[in-house]
Design a protein that fits this description.
- By secondary structure, this protein is mainly alpha-helical.
- Helix content is 78%, strand content 0%.
- It has ten helices and no strands.
- The longest helix has 52 residues.
- The chain is elongated, with a radius of gyration of 25 Å.
Length: 260
Amino acid sequence: SSSMAAAAGWAKVGAVIGGGAMLAGAAVIAKAGFEGNIGQERMRNTVAGTLQLFNHSAGAADQLGTNIKVASAAMESLNTIADESPGELKDVQQLFQNMLPGARAVTGDMQRILDLTKSAAVYTPTFGGDFGTSGAQLSRILTGGAGAEMETWKILQVPILKAGQAMDLYGKKGKKVFGENQAEGEKLTQAFNKLSKADRLNLVEAAMKGGADDLAKMYAGSWEGASASAISAGRKVSMAFTSPIFGAVKKALIRAGEQP
């Protein structure tokens, strides 16, 4: 009948549209995955380059190869940190990458740097909300470049002062660095910047450690944390889906570049 023919016709149209939608969806996933793999490799290489600059893994038979492995392992840890923070994976990666030069300048302990990244990630909304800025400012703070113009330093001053008073730090002349009458401001900033790199790192860690684990649990169970984790998980799936294609294309490009 004509009604059956019409239904069959619409079914074909629906199948075409559905097939087109599936293809379009696959193309979007492939594009996101390919871009994700490029970004992931770029960041791994940047982190490895930073480690190389600071002579990380000195004495290893293959120093660069070892630093690439260290960078890859660090990025795996950032996945876990991102799941317990208010940001997506790319946000936490940016924080880590920007903080790394200063952090590596004061310690060669990568786990310590990652723990500091976790604390910084959950406090970034308090610091102003921009992960890249938080990382860059923390890098300067750790190396003795704290300044009143930094939002991160403005927020950290009070907890750093309290941590400093609890640590009983003394200067070269035997005078207590952070006395009972010390207040936040220019003098505190100058006193902090003059500390040894070990003391600066200890103070920043102590200032952010209090409550950081509880905040991580809070974000892990919040809409903000869950939605960010879902977006990150989607990116990871698309990256895994396109990884073989990415690897094959990269090898082909390398071979093409090697040809005379």
